[in-house]
Every structure is written in C-alpha cells, then in structure tokens.
UniProtKB/TrEMBL annotation:
InterPro entries: WIF, WIF_sf. SMART domains: WIF (SM00469). Residues 1-21 form the signal peptide. Keywords: Glycoprotein, Signal. This is WIF domain-containing protein. Residues 25-115 form the WIF domain.
Amino acid sequence: MRIRLTLYMAIIVWLVERGNTMINLFISKAEMIRTLGLSAELNYVENGIINTYSTKFPYRVDTNISQVAFSWNTKVLDRKIAYKLRAIAGDNAVLPVILIPHRGYLPTSTEGEYF
C-alpha cells in the first residue's frame, strides 16, 4: 500500500501560512513499530516547520496494514486553532479515510493512535 501525504501537507501548509500555529504532525514511534517495524518517530511538521525531507518519500507498508494513524497537536494554548479537512485521493486504489471530524480545533495534547 502506498500512502501520500498531499492532503495532510496542504492542510498544514495552509495552517502554517496563516500564522504561528506551532503545529506538530507525525507518526508516533508506536505506530512506526506497528506499521514498518522501525523504532523511530516520523515528523512531518514540528513546531510549525514542515520537514520537507520526510514528505519526499511515500510511506510504504505491507498489504496487511489497512490503516496508518497520524498524531497531531498544537503548542498554542492562548487561543483555539481551527482546522478544516477534505480527503483527496491521488490513487483510487488507496482511498483516504479520515476518522476525525472534518472541521474543528487542533488539540493541545497529542491525539492519534486510535487502533
């Protein structure tokens, strides 16, 4: 299975360009172990800065992996940071499914790991 981060990165770029959101978007160490067998955290955005190196590579997992959990949070505590999501498939064989509300506010503590 091949998962691209175009959707997530478009959302994050929009949020980051709007101001200092101090957002973090990553695949946790536990999720990396579950999906790839690697003991590492994979950061796509850290403190509002996009890790362009990590976004260059597709996240390839075995066919027995049906879901990948992204974790996210914001370090901004003095105001709510709104988000809005929309799923776009770059490959019809792998359709994105979003298991969080399509609009809301970024969490101030890490959310993800729902499996």
